[in-house]
Amino acid sequence: MRHTLILGGARSGKTAFAERLALRSGSKPLYLATTDALDDDMRDRVQSHRARRASQFALYEEPMHISRAILQAGEEHDVILVDCLTLWINNMLISGEDVATAVSELCATLVEFKASKIVLVSNELGLGISPEDPLTRTFRDLAGSAHQRLAEICDDVYFIAAGLPLTLKGETPFEN
Question: Where in the sequence numbering do the catalytic residues fall?
């Protein structure tokens, strides 16, 4: 199985691209959501994503333990779309969890796990100005480190801008 990392900015089209890729990659896709919808904006975004996916994906929500969720879901699903790693990192950072250890665990899971295709979605945070506050800089740095480690082990890596994929590593995706 080829594992895929999809990066892009907020509202870049990365999730829609990931959904199309997942639906073309398997017949029993799972959407592994990492968000906790804690405010009205996030609840609206979750509802929008659910409406777009409709009944095409099974849904599993897990804000923290995605390696375990992947291993469990792989028994029933041939493709697992994880959306989104930056929310996952945020959840762990806010909860005081060791992000680097969790990323190492995820990398080990991906290297060993071949039962299903894994499609990972994450926000690229390192393209703007340096954040003023230390927590946001830490968050940006943890996400950047995670992206580098995951890009190393994923077969395909795409950057999405304006809904268009740029192949950074691996196979050229389908036509838009």
Answer: 49
Lowest-confidence region among 53-62, 111-120, 163-172:
53-62
| Radius of gyration for the chain, computed over Cα atoms and rounded to the nearest angstrom | 15
Q: What are phi and psi of 58, to 5 degrees?
A: -75, 155
List, in order of start, the domains of the chain with CATH numbers.
4-169 (3.40.50.300)
Per residue, the 3-state secondary structure of 111-140, as one string, reads HHCCCCEEEEEEECCCCCCCCCCHHHHHHH
Other beta carbons within 10 angstroms of residue 50's beta carbon come to 13
pLDDT in tens, 157-167: 999 999 999 99
Contact criterion met (CB below 8 Å) for 79 and 14: no
Beta strands in the chain, from DSSP E residues, in sequence order = 4-8, 29-33, 58-61, 79-83, 117-123, 156-161, 164-169
Global pTM value: 0.91
Q: How many residues does the chain have?
A: 176
3-state helix vs strand vs coil in the chain, percent to 5 = 45, 20, 35
- Find out whether 83 and 29 touch, Cβ atoms under 8 Å: no
Q: How far apart are alpha carbons 65 and 54 in whole angstroms?
A: 25
